[in-house]
Structure formats: structure tokens, C-alpha cells
# Entry
Amino acid sequence: MRPKLPHERTRREPTLRDPTLMPRSLAEALEPTRAPKAPRRIRSRSEPGRFSRFFGFANGLLSFLFLVAALVGTLALVLQSSFDQPGPLGHATVAVIPKGEGVYEIASRLEREGIVSDRRMFMAHYLAERMYTNYTDGKPIQLKAGEFEIRKHASLRQVLDTLSEGRAILYRITIPEGLTSAQIVERLKAEPNLEGEIMQMPEEGSLLPDTFKFSRGMARQELIDRMRTEQQRLLATLWEKRQKELPLETPHQAMTLASIVEKETGRADERTRVAGVFINRLRSRMRLQSDPTIVYGIIGGQGSLGRPITRSDIDTKTAYNTYQVDGLPPGPICNPGRSAIEATLDPAKTTDLYFVADGTGGHTFSASLKDHNSAVQTWRKLERDAKAKQAEQQAALPVPNSLQSTEGGADAAKRAAIDVPLPVRKPKR
# Structure
């Protein structure tokens, strides 16, 4: 090999005496100047790679999930079986769930009363149902208060459905038409299945009488509120449909007149005609002259007078006595029913101005004072005949020994026949 020419040398050749290559010490001279390269590793076919490791992890994960699914499925089958299994209750009973009790208290109550065998199973099913309804975007179940009828050997599912769907035992209370607010309050206080106090006396005429259903433990004030709401809704509807040009300026005046119509007649077929009489008298600027307004002016909403109306009662001037005041009284004298309100706002179109009892529970209506006076004479004859017949019946009754020892039997029978109440109303003046 020929030596390279000077101009062909592109890099300085290191020499043994190059100071950059000379060791600085004997130990350094013994060390290699460059680390040897690691030998190339040849992977064995039996050694797993990345894909094999991933496949092993996935296989383990799937096995774990399968095991969990199997356990969950087994647990679900066990729960399902216990859910539909007949319960321990040996006879039908009534479960009373007070207001304010939570799931744990209700479950403990059911276990204590022998309706369920294990309160924990009941709570587990309750929570499972809530989770299911939440997952399916359904309405969450809610255990309700009330009185529930539980069948014999009812399963957990049946008990839970009964308490959550609100199939509580319902009671009825009937509020007759024509009661005052004070009388309605007393009736609600006497109902043992209602609870709580009524905060204040409702305004007269603000409640709608009807038959109401309620569950045990319902608050009395809640029932009062329901009666008030239904009355307001009904009055608003009927007021919009009222006859045109009625001499009633406000719904309050309509309720006032409806209360008078309610107290004047108990016959449904006469209400529109009685209402028509009062509407005609208001248009003619005649006083209404309604006997029930006399009673309300004397005793308010406390009930009946307990005796016949006297001339002094008629002459007593009160704010409600329509024999003494013009137009309508300041407010209702009772709580009228639906039919009386309907009759007041859609009265019969007649020329009648008067009515008087006819002796059969109904009334004779007249357009003139002459016809009315004739009807009054007929009524008074019927009244005399009825009193005479009652006196005869009383005289025919055997006289008790206690009366015979003090006075004659005829005198005692005659005295017993005095002031016997008649089953008909006194005539309208």
C-alpha cells in the first residue's frame, strides 16, 4: 500500500505520543478506552411478547367479570325467589303506617307485626327497586303513610307494592248541604280517623259540602282546605256560566243567596223555582223575608233555634234578618251545596214572588199577593187539622202511672199534645 500524500491527509493521525491519548495514571492505562458493545440478544420463541401479555391480562379480566356476573346473577335469583315467596302472615291484617316514618322504621314495624320475616330482606328489596327505577328513569317508589290491608301470606313484593302504590284503606265522611262552618268543624272533630287541629274557623259559605274519602291519619285542616278549594273551583266555573242580568254583582253575593235557597227547601226539584222567587224580589226591590235569616241573625252558626219563630224574633232587627233589612244579608248563612249554587246562578224564569208550604214537604208558588193569601189559608187549615189529629193520637195513648198519680189522664194527654212540632215549614209571609 502506497503512503498517502500530504494533501490526501484530511485528519490528523493519532500517535502513541498524542497527549490526548496518553493515560494519566497506571490504573487508567489498564482501563479500556471504550466500553464494549453488549452482545445482541436473540429472543427465544418460548418467551412471551407484548401481545401475549395483553392477551393474558384480558383473559384474566374477562374471567373475573364472568365470575362477578355469575355471583350477581345467583344473588338476583335468590332475591327474586325470596321476593315472591309467601310471607309469614297467617291471617289478613291491617298495617298502620304513621306519617314521618322512614324505611327502617317501617321495615321494623312490619317485622314486629309478623308481616315480613326479616326487615333486612324487606329493605334490600326496597333499595333494589329504587335502584332499578332510577336506572330505567322510572318514578322512584315511595312508601306511603296510611292504613293498608295486607292479605294472608303476602309476599315481599305484594307488601312493597301495597305500601308504595298507595292502596290505603279509605274512609268516608259526608258533609250535608246547609251546615254552617261551625257545624262542619264539629263534625270533623268528631271523626276519630282524622288528626290534627283546624287552625281557624272557615268563613261561612266557603266550604263545599260533599262526601269525601280519606285515609287514616289525614289532617283535618287538609280536608278543610280541600273543601274550600273545590268550592272556589265550582263557583268560578258556574259564575262564568251564570244567567245574564242577574241582580248579583259578585260571587260572594251569589253564595249568600245560594245559602238562603239551600235553607228554604230540601227538594231538588224546587230549588230553581225558589231561587227565581228571590231573584224576582231583588229585582222588584222587595225584602226577601226568609225565616232562616232570622234564626242565623239570632244564634249565628251554632245550629237551630230549638223552638218556633215568634213575632218578637221577626221584629228583632239584626244584620241578617231579611224581614228588617233590604236586599241581601252581609254574607252566607250556611254552606250551600252544588245544586243550590247552580239554581241561584241559573234560576227558573217565572213571575213568582211568593211561596208557602203545601203540607207535603213542598211549596205552593204564587205571582200575586191574592193567590198567596189563598195558599196561606189552605196551609193554615192543613196545620189546624194536623194539630187536631196529633192531639187525638196523644189522647189515645195510655197514660203512665206517674202521671195518673198527680193529675187526670185526659189533662196529661192534652198537655203532652201542646207544641208538638210539625213536619212542615211555617208559611212564608
Summary: DSSP finds 15 helices and eight strands in the chain. Residues 353-429 form one domain.
